[in-house]
């Protein structure tokens, strides 16, 4: 018998068919767990955004009511730290 051919069975099920899906851990989740996980993620994002806002307030930036991006905030912070380090080393 050819190895690439399967035996002719009447109840053969294709292993890739939807009937053979293996339940993943996400399928066993209870909705309360999903809700809590989503809330934790929302809290985490809010905390990160608040931290960026605090950093923006600490930087010597022009207050022209233009909100700068997170990447630009980090670049300004790095530049500001380098300037402060230079001031300390020049003393």
UniProtKB/TrEMBL annotation:
GO terms for biological process: developmental process. PROSITE patterns: BHLH. The keyword Disulfide bond does not apply. The keyword DNA-binding applies. Keywords: DNA-binding. It comes from the Eukaryota. Residues 32-84 form the BHLH domain. PANTHER family: BASIC HELIX-LOOP-HELIX TRANSCRIPTION FACTOR, TWIST (PTHR23349), BHLH DOMAIN-CONTAINING PROTEIN (PTHR23349:SF108). This is Helix-loop-helix protein 6-like isoform X1. It comes from Biomphalaria pfeifferi (Bloodfluke planorb).
